[in-house]
Amino acid sequence: MKKIIILLLFLAGIHILDACLLCQCNHVIPYFDFFTLQTETTAPDPGNQQPLEILVAPDSLEYLACVQPAWQLTPTAWGCTCEENGERGPKYPVTELTITADRSFKDSLPAGASLNHLFQLTGVHTEFPKYEPHQISQLQYWDYGFFPYGPGFLLRSEATPDSLGVPFRFTVTLVKSNGVSVSATTSAVQW
Question: If pLDDT is split at 50, 70 and 90, which confidence band does 57 have?
Fold first, then answer.
């Protein structure tokens, strides 16, 4: 009887060690890749000090770098907290960001010219700092809110074009570290 109690205590200890302390989240796929972008614009209203805002979010996601499940003696405890799929960020980080317009924004900025210097890059929530678009390669994805399950990031501009009342469409292009470019064009925006 004593041996059975010792054996049961030993098995209970292994169960606690395996299920609680050695928390394994083998079902989590840590990285994501995106093949398209979603954009959404907030029209500028200079009278109310509302800048042009372009929301950019990853779309057509694929989760990568899956680890083969390891053998476990007992199932993982419910108290184990695992990361979300893609929580470690993009498999191929964004190295370049370019913003262009389909028509001349100013006399010195013809259609197709980079408008990066007119925009600031920030997260959707106010606690994110503001960055210049050329800094994107130096940032971590969490610095500007580029998550697969989040709202994305914002491009904000206070600039006003020379031609008012004319619709503009902006193209946002992201280049990933593997050299692949992903672009999206906004709906028409006018001042």
Answer: confident
- Is residue 54 very low, low, confident or very high in pLDDT (cuts 50, 70, 90)? very high
Could you tell me the domains of the chain? 28-65+82-185 (2.60.40)
d(CA 102, CA 105): 9
Selection from 186, 156, 185, 153 nearest residue 56 by Cα: 153
130-to-111, 126, 156, 183 alpha-carbon distances in Å: 26, 9, 9, 22
* DSSP SS3 for 7: helix
Which helix (H) or strand (E) segment is 157 a member of? strand 153-157
Is the separation of the CB atoms in 108 and 114 below 8 Å? no
| Average pLDDT score over residue span 113-124 | 89
Q: Which of 120, 114, 166, 174 is nearest to 146 (CA)?
A: 174
